[in-house]
Amino acid sequence: MTRVIPFAVLAFCASTAIAGDGTAEKATTKTSVSAAEARMAQWKQEGRRMNFIADHDHDGDGRVSSIEFEQSRRDRFDLTDTNSDGIVDEQEYVYEWEDRLDAQLEVDRSGRAKQTYVRFAAMDKDDDEFMSWNEYAASGDRIFTGWDTNKDNVINSADPERSYNWSPKPDSELTAEEREQRRERQMSYARSMLVMPTTHNLAGVMARYDLNQDGRVERDEFDGKRRADYDLTDFNGDGTLEPDEYAGEFEDRMDAVIDTFRAESVQQSRRRFGKLDDDSDGQMTFAEYRASGNRIFARYDGSQDGYVSLDDPMPPRFEAADEQQLAANTGD
To answer: Is residue 2 part of a domain?
Structure first.
């Protein structure tokens, strides 16, 4: 049975035979976690540009002209101006953002929830549709030993960085259908907003298992937390986990993350409105909205020829705050 690997790595290595412990069946490249994260950041940037073109290429020629993008901005502005008075106030701006935010978070939540059942099946080694403590503990053992790279029974910053063996197929070796599937996955990944804490990076391991916050996770500390999590997830107290119990516990944690992220994102949208409202009169005109769009377009139009296409140089990476503004301003 195939084990589950990090979502980001799975997305990048799609269409490649990868084992769930991060080992490629025909491994040719060893990649550190930090290098993998950098590659995924680049992959997401490329996906954002694909989405930009898909969203604003009205004539289907594979590129976006400045005229097409301005028309998209006009359409978005008019949609946001719910009372049709020719201006957008803060509440209208926030309501429109909330609609798109909630729609994307629902897509993200659904995908993560489905993946939870895949993880359960991977951990259920005897395929009896129940997860025993031993099966759950074995998964934890793989997590701990994977991060305790110096084998001192402690996970901390002193452990040498872990790595994966990768052998992703280049696009040239994929069929047209496989290339399209990879493209769709990349665009979907670029649109995703939900980020769950994960044991696939050290920060996630420390956040979940460093209970006394001393910057290190000892084996007893780790095992104790795993046992507590297992017992908490066993809602009916029968000593085993069923798929719905396992998924339910994850969905509870996911919903808590969504609630926090959503509240922060709505506040960020209010700050964005303040920046877009150049004259600070509490109203945004189309001219003000168009000005911010021009800056977005110019960033993607690396060749400065008035068109955005896949041939343009990639723009610099967006910082976290810029990414939300990019999403708000382009529909990503």
So the answer is: no
